[in-house]
Amino acid sequence: MKPEDNKVMRLQDAVEKYVTDGCHLSIGGFTLNRNPMAAVYEIIRQKIKDLHVYAHSNGQGVDELIGGGCVSRLEIAYGGTGKFMSTCIRFKKAVQEQTIIVEDYSNFQMTLRFLAGAMGIAFLPTRSSLGTDIINKWGFPKAFRKQHDRIPNQKLVVMDNPFDGWCDTKKVVLVPAITPDVTIIHVQMADFRGNCRIEGLTFADVEQAKAAKRLVITCEELLDDDYLKTDPDRNQIPFIHADAVVKVPFGAYPTACFKYYDYDATYMKAYARAAKNDDAYQQYLAAYIFDCPTHTHLLDKVGRRRVESILADRNRGYAKHLDRK
Amino acid sequence: MKPEDNKVMRLQDAVEKYVTDGCHLSIGGFTLNRNPMAAVYEIIRQKIKDLHVYAHSNGQGVDELIGGGCVSRLEIAYGGTGKFMSTCIRFKKAVQEQTIIVEDYSNFQMTLRFLAGAMGIAFLPTRSSLGTDIINKWGFPKAFRKQHDRIPNQKLVVMDNPFDGWCDTKKVVLVPAITPDVTIIHVQMADFRGNCRIEGLTFADVEQAKAAKRLVITCEELLDDDYLKTDPDRNQIPFIHADAVVKVPFGAYPTACFKYYDYDATYMKAYARAAKNDDAYQQYLAAYIFDCPTHTHLLDKVGRRRVESILADRNRGYAKHLDRK
Amino acid sequence: MDYTLKELMTICAAREIKNNDIVFCGTGISMLAAMAAKNINAPDSVIFFETGAIDSRLEDIPLAVADPRIMYHTSANGGLMEAFCTMQNPLSGTRIVGILGAAQIDLYGNLNSTVIGEYDAPDVRFSGSGGACDVASFVSRSIIFMKMEKRKFKKKLDYLTSPGFLDGPGGREKAGLPPGGPDKVITDMGVMGFDEHTRKMFLIGCFPGITPDQILDNMEFEIRTDRAVEIAVPTQTELTLLREKCDPHGLIL
Amino acid sequence: MDYTLKELMTICAAREIKNNDIVFCGTGISMLAAMAAKNINAPDSVIFFETGAIDSRLEDIPLAVADPRIMYHTSANGGLMEAFCTMQNPLSGTRIVGILGAAQIDLYGNLNSTVIGEYDAPDVRFSGSGGACDVASFVSRSIIFMKMEKRKFKKKLDYLTSPGFLDGPGGREKAGLPPGGPDKVITDMGVMGFDEHTRKMFLIGCFPGITPDQILDNMEFEIRTDRAVEIAVPTQTELTLLREKCDPHGLIL
After folding, report:
1. Do A240 and D95 lie within an 8 Å CB cutoff?
2. How many CB pairs under 8 A join A and B?
3. Does residue C44 have a pLDDT over 80?
C-alpha cells in the first residue's frame, strides 16, 4: 500500500487534523439531504471557532455549525431546510444579532464559485443576478476584503461581453473561485483510497470536493478493496482528491442519505423548536452533541425505533411510509 | 404520448431533416471511439455540403466527413485517431490543399466552448494556451469573422484577472461558446423520449448535446419504455434536449462502443491505406458508403466474422483477444 | 363547494402551467402546484428541481428540493450545475416556467427574499436567494406566490433578490438579463398579471367574495384593477385530484 | 544486452516517473512509458488520460487515449471536462507529469504539433494540439519524446502549439501561465534537460555509442554538452517487464 493510501481514520482524528480554528470550510449536501452531520457534530464537540464557511444551500449542517458557535463568516446562497425551517433559525438569529458576517450569492453563483475552484480558474461568468442587490450590496466591504488575503478583492464583477453580443449577451457577472481549506462530504460509498460513489443527486459535492485543499470523506460503506473500480461510471470523485476517509454509518443523520435512509422529520422538527429558544438550544447542544462522545451515542440517544423508521426502501431510495406530519 | 415524445425516426429521415447544406454540425466521440459513424456515412451518402464542423478530437468521423467532401470549415483541437492515423489523412490533405479552412484550439478549449454553449454563457475562461500561437494565429481572420454572423467576432480574448491575482492568476484566455445547429452522438442506450445513457467515458458528448439547437441520438439499444428511469444516476442527457432518436446497432462502427464492441483495427488500417491515395479513396467511398444504402449494408459487406471478432467482452468492455497488429 | 384558500391558490397556479412546460419547483405550495398541474391539466409537463433532478415521478410529496423523493424515477440525476445550466441555456431555459415565493414584491414583480431593514444590520433575515435569483434571471416566465399584506407589496424593496422587470420596460435588457420576467402573482385574495407594455402589475381577478379595493388596501403601491374579473373556483375534479393524488397526507395543504 | 532504441527510449522516460506521480499519457510510446513506469519503478504512479479516465488498470495496451481499454477498472470514468480541470487545478495539476511528443521543439522546450510552413498555407499539417497545449500549460513538468533531426530541433518553431519556457526565464510568468515546463527530452540519441536558471536545453547524456557532437549535428540550435554522461542501458528486469507486461504483442515496440 502506498503512503497516500493510508487515508482511513477516525472521525475525531480527521476533524482534529483538518478542521482548525479560523479555517475556511465547506460542507456537502443540500438542505435536509446528505449533510455530513456526524462531522458537523464533531466540529461542534471539538469547539472549533471562527470558521469561514462556504455554502450554497447546505441547510441543517450550516445552521448547527452556527448554533454551535463555530462560525464567524459565511458566504451563502440559502439558509433554510425546506419545510422544517423555511429560514434556518440559528442562522437568522446570528445574522440579525450580527454575530456572524454574511455575503450573499445565488445558488448557481456559489456552484460556479466551487466549480471555478475545482477547475483551477480564478472566476466563472454567469448572467444571473444582473440588476439585483446581489450585485449592489456587499456583506464583506472592499476595505474588509483588502485586509483578508483569503478573500477575493471583489464580491463579483460585472463585465461587458468581449465577444460583442455573441449569444445575445451584452453583460456577464464574474464570480470568484472558492478554494476552501477543507471540504467535508458524506457519501454512500468510498474505498480506502478515497474513491467516492454518490447515489442520487450529487448537488455540488463534487465541485466542493475538488476545489478544496483537503477533502474529508465520511461514508456509509467503506470498501477495503477495489470494488468501486468494477463500475467506475458510478464514481464521481477519484481518490487523488481525497485526504481522509471515515466510515460513519448514518453519518448524514438527521438529514437523508438516498438509498440508505430518509431524513428524520421528528428530529428536525424538535431541532427547529429548540432553535427558536436560546435555553432550549443550549439543552439541545448539551444533550445531543456534548453529551454524545460519538455519532453512535447520538443515534443511541435517538433510539433504534426512530432510526429504523427512516430506513430507505431500497427500490425508491427513501422511506415510503415514514410519518412526516 | 405527447407530441415531443415522437422522436424515434429512421436515420435517413433524421439526417435529411436536421443536417442541411451549410449547417453547423458537431459530432460526439473521440478519435476511434463512439463516433456516430452510421450518421456520418449517411451524411456523406446524402451528399450534404459546406458543413461548418466543430470537433475536439473526433478523429474518424471528422476525417470521413472531410474525405466525403461535406466540410468547408472546421474548428478543431486534434485531427487524428491515435495509432491508426497519427494525423487524419483526408484532413491533412484538405488543409494542405486549402480546400477547407481550419481554426485551431486545444482540446480543453473546445470542451469549454461546448460547455459554454450548454451553459448558455457567451464564453468561458482558461489559463491554457497563454504565450502560444493558438492565441496569435487565427484561421478565421477578423474580416472573415465579420462577414459571418454565426462565427464570433474573435477567436479568443486574453484578459487580465479582474480579481487582482486571485488564485495566483494574472491573465486568462476567454474562449467563445459554440451552439451548433445540430449535434449527433452515438450512445449505448436511449429511450423513445431521448433520455440517454452513455457507458464508459462520456468525452464531451454531454456538453456537445446540450449546446446544440438540435440533438440527434443514434443508439445501440432503443427502449420503448421507462427502463432508463429506474437507474437515473447512470443517465447523462435528459430527454428535454433530444430531437431525434434512431436505433442503429453498431452505429459507431468501425469505431468502438464500450461494453458493446471494439474498434475494427482491420477496417481502420484499410481506411488509412485508402485515404493516402485519391483513387483508392474514391473506391473506398463507392464501395463502403455510396454502394451501401444503409449501415446494415456496410456491416454485411464487412462480413459477420469481422463484426463478431470485435464484440466486447461484457466484463472488460472491449474485445480482449482482438488481433490489433 | 368546500375548499381552502391554499387549495384555491394551488389550483390557480396549476392552471397557469401548460402541457410540455418544464416547471421549476421550490418548496411547499410551489411544488404542490407543479404536482397539481401534472395530475390535473398538464400531464406532460416536466417537473424540474434546481438540485439536479428532472422529470421526477413524485409518488410522494417532497418537503424540500433536496428531498430524496425527488431523486426517484427521474430522467437523469445530476447536480446543481446541470440544473442551472439547463435554466441559463436559452434552448431549454425558455421552456421553463418558474414558481417562486418571496417576502416582498414590488410593482414590477421584483422580489426580496433576503432581508427586511438594512442589509448590514437587518431587522429580519430570510433564507436568501437560493436558486430564486437564478430562475428569475433566466427563465421565460414565472409564477409568484405572495400573501396580501402591505408590508409585502412594497413601493421599494429592502433588497432586490430576484429580478422581475426591474425598473419597467426595457429594464431587464438594460441590465443585461435575458428576456423573461414574472407572469402571474397568486395571492390569498386574487391573481395579478403584468401589463405587456408598462410591465406594471395589474389585477387580473379577485377570489370569490373579495373586492379590488380590499386587495388595494393590502398593498403599498397602486395597481390597475379595471380589467379584474372573478376567478373561477376549483372544480370538484381539481380538488379531488389535488387532495388524493398530490397531498393525501395533508403535508402542505 | 539486446534492446531496441524504442525500448531504451521508453525505459529512459519511465525512469523519470516517480511513485505517486500522476502520469498524463498520450498515444503510442508515451503510453508505453507510463505503463513501463507502473510495472517497473513506480508501481503507485497513477495513469491518467485527457479523455477522462483515471487509474485505468490497462491489462492491454491502448492504441489511442480513447481506446476502450482505458475505461476498464478505473477510479472514475468522466469526460474531457473532468480531466482538464484536474490538470488546471493546481492542487492536482502540480502532481501531474505530462508525456508529450511533437513535430518540432526549440531551445526552451516549446513544441509544435500543428503545421510546418505558413499557418494559413501549410506545407505539412499535423494533428494539432489536442490536449498537448493544455498539459504543457498546466502541469508542473513534462517529458518530451523527440526524434533527433535538424528539422525537428528548430531555432524558431513554425507554430508554437504547446508552451515550454517560452522565451526563457520568467517567460511563462510573463505570459500568465502557471509554473511548470518541460523537464526532459528523450530522443533516439540521448536525453536532454533544461537548466534551472537559463531555462535552456542542455545535454544530460548520450545513448551508448553516441557522442555529443553527433547530437549537435542533428539540431539547428546549440546546447551545452559539458554535463553529459553516458545513459545507463536498460537492465534485464526492465526489458523483461516492458516486453512481457506492457506490450507482449509488440503493438507499440
Report:
1. yes
2. 90
3. yes
| C 31-70 residues inside an 8 A Cβ radius of A | 50-53, 59-60, 62-70
Residue with cell 527510449: D9
Closest residue, chain A, to D57 (C-alpha): A229
- Supply the pLDDT for residue B4: 53
Q: Can the peptide bond before residue B254 be classed as cis, meaning omega within 30 degrees of 0?
A: yes
A31 and C64: CB-CB below 8 Å? Answer: yes
Each residue of B98-139: pLDDT tens digit? 999 999 999 999 999 999 999 999 999 999 999 999 999 999
Please judge whether B119 and C89 are an interchain contact, meaning their C-beta atoms are less than 8 angstroms apart.
Answer: yes
Counting as contact any 3 or more CB pairs under 8 A, the partners of C are: A, B
Cβ pair B163:A169 closer than 8 A: no
Q: For A278, how many CA atoms within 13 A lie in the half-sphere containing its CB?
A: 4
Predicted confidence (pLDDT) at residue A4 exceeds the cutoff of 60: no
Catalytic (active site) residue C82: no
CB distance A29 to A203 below 8 Å: yes
Report how far residue A106's alpha carbon sits from residue A130's, in angstroms, rounded to the nearest whole number.
Answer: 11
Q: Name the E strands within chain D.
A: 22-24, 46-48, 53-54, 76-77, 96-101, 104-105, 111-112, 115-117, 122-125, 141-145, 182-186, 190-194, 201-206, 229-230
pLDDT band at B148 (very low <50, low <70, confident <90, very high): very high
Higher pLDDT, C27 or C184: C184
Q: Bridge-partner residues for C202, per DSSP? A: C193, C224
DSSP reduced 3-state for B84? coil
Q: Are B232 and C22 an interchain contact pair (Cβ–Cβ within 8 Å)? A: no
Query: How far is residue B275 from each of residues B29, B52, B73, B89, B91, measured CA to CA in Å?
Result: 21, 22, 20, 6, 10
How far is C233 from C210, CA to CA, in rounded Å?
13
pLDDT of amino acid A314: 84
- Which CATH number is D5-244 given? 3.40.1080.10
pLDDT of A219-264, one tens digit each? 999 999 999 999 999 999 999 999 999 999 999 999 999 999 999 9
Minimal-distance CA residue of chain B relative to A233 = B200
B266 touches chain D (CB under 8 A): no
C129 touches A at CB < 8 Å: yes
Contact D76 A237 (CB under 8 A): yes
Mean pLDDT, chain B, whole residue set: 96
A259's torsion region: left (phi>0), alpha (psi -120 to 50) or beta? left
Confirm if A130 and A171 have CB atoms less than 8 A apart.
yes
Chain-chain contact of C60 with A32 (C-beta, under 8 angstroms): no
Q: Check if A233 contacts B (Cβ < 8 Å).
A: yes
% chain A with pLDDT above 70? 98
Q: Domains of chain B, with CATH numbers?
A: 1-122+177-325 (3.40.1080.10), 130-176 (3.30.30.40)
Q: Cell numbers for D214, please give them.
A: 553527433
Question: What's the pTM?
Answer: 0.98
- Pairs of CB atoms within 8 A across A/D: 72
- Interface check for D4 against chain A (CB to CB < 8 A): the answer is no
Backbone angles phi, psi at D115, to 5 degrees: -145, 155
pLDDT of A2 over the 50 cut: no
Report the neighbours of B using a cutoff of 3 or more CB pairs below 8 angstroms: A, C, D
Q: Which residue of A has its CA nearest to B315?
A: A230
**Helix (H) or strand (E) run with residue D173 in it:** helix D171-175
For the segment C191-198, the average pLDDT, to the nearest whole number, is 98
Mean local confidence (pLDDT), D120-145: 97
Q: Does C197 touch chain A (CB under 8 A)?
A: no
Q: Which of C50, C59, C118, C149 is catalytic?
A: C50
